[in-house]
Amino acid sequence: MDQTLVVLKPDAVQRGLIGEIVGRFEKRGFRIRKMRMLTFGHEIAADFYSPHAGKPFFSDLERFITSGPVVGIVLEGNNAVEVVRNMIGKTKSDEAISGTIRGDYALGYTDNIIHASDSVDSYIRESKIVFPENR
What we know:
Blueprint: E1 2-8, H1 10-14, H2 18-28, E2 31-38, H3 42-48, H4 58-65, E3 70-77, H5 80-88, H6 101-105, E4 114-116, H7 120-130
Antiparallel strand pairs: 1-3, 1-4, 2-3
């Protein structure tokens, strides 16, 4: 079984979509291995989004992810990274197709409901930030 990380962003938490989104993963057959609510400070946000440092949208990402509580979840299942990425849809919500999490719920580019690790290496790095007891 493979694992991946998802982070339900502040807009998902504020809009009361935690149960709906988690339920979609459970219905797909994923098992929740860890889950916690936290609020990213600027240092954690900068570390989490460090692969995007220097890009024009970096400050918008950091500002949004620190705007309220998030929910970090480690999911386990077959081909977890790939399947979860397909389930969440394209980053730009206006390009995400209906039936994906972003296609059904997201409203913008940074306020796009959810983050999911894009590789096993990203999962390992990101999960240590969201679940520091794994370091």
